[in-house]
Amino acid sequence: MNIQNNPSLMDQLAASYALGTLRGGARRRFETLARDNATLRAAALVWQSRLSSVAELQPQEAPSPVVWKRIENLIKADKEARAMQAARAVPSAMGWWSSLGLWRGGAAAGAIATLAAVVVGLNVNGRLSGQVSELTAKLTATPEIEYVAVLTDDKASASLLVTFDPKNKTLALKRVGNFREQPDKSLELWALPPGVAPKSLGVMSADPVVRLTAAGTDMRQVPTLAITLEPKGGVPPGSGPTGPILFKGALIETPK
Amino acid sequence: MFFMKPESPDRQLIALIERVAQADESALRELYELTSSKLYGVAIRVVSNREWAEDVLQEAFFNIWRIAGDYKATLSPPMAWMALVVRSRGLDFLRRRASDRADLMQELDDVISDTVAGDSANPMDTTQASEQAWALHQCLGRLEHKQREVVSLAYLRDLSHGELAEQLKLPLGTVKTWIRRGLEQLRGCMARFA
Description:
- The complex is a heterodimer of chains A (about 260) and B (about 190).
- Chain A folds into three domains: about 10-50, no CATH class; about 65-140, no CATH class; about 145-255, Sandwich (Immunoglobulin-like).
- Chain A is built from eight helices and eight strands, in the order αααααααββββββαββ.
- Chain A has helices at about 5-20, 25-35, 40-50, 65-85, 95-100, 110-120, 125-140, 215-220; strands at about 145-150, 160-165, 170-175, 185-190, 200-205, 210-215, 225-230, 245-255.
- The radius of gyration of chain A is 25 Å and the shape is globular.
- Chain B has about 190 residues and is mostly helical.
- Chain B folds into two domains: about 1-100, Rna Polymerase Sigma Factor, Chain: A; about 125-195, Winged helix-like DNA-binding domain superfamily/Winged helix DNA-binding domain (Arc Repressor Mutant, subunit A), CATH 1.10.10.
- Chains A and B meet through helix 1, helix 3, helix 4 and strand 8 of A and helix 2, helix 3, helix 4, helix 6 and helix 7 of B.
């Protein structure tokens, strides 16, 4: 059975996958298919997002006050353990790094350089420098933050998968629905920052995957992206959208 | 994928989670005060026993303390994310107790027969509810009680069709049909909120 030709089945499978009722071999086959199929990935993302709120909807009940006491004790013990590591005379490299909060991820290159210099200054024996270079390597390999958006139509069907690679400064737009604009029209992508005019991010060609250059500043502070239907070639630079919004979606920050 | 109004409860929770990520103990306490009743409710639904649910709630908050820094990277509204932590700790708890099968199955039977057999309304405390949860609540409310319960249980307890049929003492075909219809209706309804 060629699943690509059956969008309704694809969506049902994505829903079962997100719900958790797709099991064993079927689950693995879905994951294999989804790896190469952007439509499936997009559908699974949409369903996962919808179902995540099921957990929020259960009836409430107040727990006994002793539960907070126990949590408080656990937190205190955890804080003490970390403080003790940081306070040792010759701190282990792990103690330094964790007390400085660097394991939270996303450390700036400047901070790493500064700390590497500090630790080198404290290097009192050869063993420490081995640990330092290992840790510096780990810290410089922090994950790239990417932005991703799934743009859907008014029936919540996914039509476009958008990813932004800040390293190469490109936006990749992948068509995942069946929509094809007419030959005399173009699809134009807009960033919708709050309170200001929409900013065009470019016009899509007819290819299934389109790459546009974009600056990181374009993507920050933008909660929503939208696609409008415009005359062929898009609107003149500097002017706003003239056609209807066909697809829109929220922009999410995520590590790779 | 969720939309936030400026003064929404979501923003308040997100700000608190951010502070917890900076090891701010008072922020965790505030988070607990705002969300513990909801999250205790989730824990009870996952493990079906109030005493166990207390342990799970405690483990969940300690987990939240440790991983608050990871929240920003997820696609969830804050309450949904915390509830997922509770669900994961709850499922871990059940797995650890799997050797104690006898009393585990008894507890599950009691709670399940209460939920599915009953004809309870679809109440929702709107405090601390995310926009998406509100939409989902509206849509779930349109499902028949049985369909709603079966979909919720499948998700919260990470159960397969077969496991659900066994626990609810229902034919496998019935469970599959209810879930399929439930998901179809959800899809159509949520589309209107998109």
